[in-house]
Input
Amino acid sequence: MVKSIITRRDFIGATAAAGAGLLLTSCSPDAGQPAAGKKPGGSDLHIALIGYGAEGAVLMDSLIKIDGIQIVAICDIWEYHRLEGQRLLKAYGTEARAYENYEDLLDKEKDLQAVIVATPDFWHAPITNACLKAGLHVYCEKMMSNTIEGARSMVQTMRETGKLLQIGHQRRSNPRYLFAKRRLLDTAKICGRQTAAQAQWNRAVTEDFGWPRKYAMPADQLAKYGYQDMHQFRNWRWFKALGGGPLSDLGAHQIDIFNWWFGMTPQSVMASGGVDYYKTHEWYDNAMVIYEFPLPQGVARAFYQVQTTTSAGGGYFEMFMGDEGTLKMSEDPSLCAIYREARAPSWDDLVQKGYIRAKVSATAAADAVKVDVRETAPLAEFEIPVFFNKPPHMPHLENFFNAIRGTAKLNCPADEAFRSEYVIHKANEAIPAGQRVAITPQEVEA
Amino acid sequence: MSESNENGKSDACCGGGDCGSFMAFLVLRLWLGVRALVTGIEKFGAYANIQKPLIDPSTGQPDSSGVLVNVSVKYYSLTNYSGIPPSLKDRFTNEPLLPKFGLTAFDHLLGPAFILSGVMLLLGLGTRLSLFLMALIYVALTIGLILIKQDDGISWLGIHIALVAFALTLVKHNKFELFKKW
Output
């Protein structure tokens, strides 16, 4: 009897101590997780960044987080930007050589494998073509060029040189977009028969960019690189000889999603727009576009609008609508949603798989009051509970570098991007034409 | 001292005691001890979201898109400790009959007191004393709930007090104690 009590005491004491230790110290969710933080060493690929303006800085934010690459050179015609880029890289322990001219960079940097091009659009084609011919792989920001001919020349050079040319439609590598397309749109056919699409980018009024006066470039240097003055250099997106305007800057990403997700190019476009607000711009400050996509089940019309004078109307998103549901995507996860039509089959299996999640509405749909007998009952809303934890451009850049290493295929090669960029150029043409512009499957091929 | 059953015979399975009363106290002791111990431990618990790859159910592998999902995981840590739930603490703060220093002290002591009384009762370290300590905790909680007019909670605590009182009446049938004096 005594022996059994001692045994019980020992057991209780040992169990209590072990249990308390486990409960209070080892049940942290971080237990066993690697520490977040810095990438390990490694510099397999030597790259250069050509163009360190606003977009170049966005790309740099991703590049410095990617393992296995080293930015050895930075190129920008403006000293102010070059110094800024060098300072940033130095803060991350990288001494990058700086160049004003991309031709000098190509002459002197003989250990490069790839370049990232983030210059104004009208420089994309000449720089990209030169880099491809120099034997480098190129990641070029969209738009490919401010002209169709320029974009086509890039595809041709890519084919001639056999080098990789990725275009910066970064949503094509966005894990959330890949997931939504593969799992929800293509496999689950969550929209049913697709009948329409809508996308927009509404942005509030912004002032033109300025510049520190002491860093103003002299007139001859500006002229050498194709600019009339510093104002045009800093605000090139609004000038027809240099860029493509808001349909190109903002709409390109989203109109590309129309093509990608419908799996085809449109058969026509009509559009309206104008320079109605800004006094110093050449490109339209607002535009509304309608494309017709000849899907196998019937035509789906896609409406796109870009506003640069108001941020109302829901921000920026791409929405695919069908007779069973609507899938609304955005680079901003808070703007994404799925709406289920009453006639849709059960989505319970998608909920069970964790692909979608019913959204708890503050107001019960049943309590909503119909104001018109023809009004459809409010739709059930769902969320897409998946995410990724990288800057938006990082997966697309990683895809490019992995393709160079031979471990991936480009998600947006130039010939694929050309089809989207062609129909964007056509929308810009349709506005002054004031009529429906036909687009054939043959003309969208580079 | 042994007790007899209805037939005037000692119950051999309980070493000569009242087997039913012994078992009644044992289950009550277990319930009250576990109730207090786990309640105290829970005050060190919290939930955190951790990011994990979405698993493709058809392959059991991470989804090829590379997306992540948040998984809510419960964990325990000393830093999580919260004696009085924050929603109630805010209401107690405005009660004139609850001085701030008293509220702070009670907040700090509540969890450890639950754990202490639960461990004492389960191990038999002063069974009567542990039951009395437990009753004092429930009385203190009842005072707080009276002040903020939480009648449902008061009834709930009343049941606990009744169980503790019942346990004190049965404690004479107790066995398996590490420290018998109290």
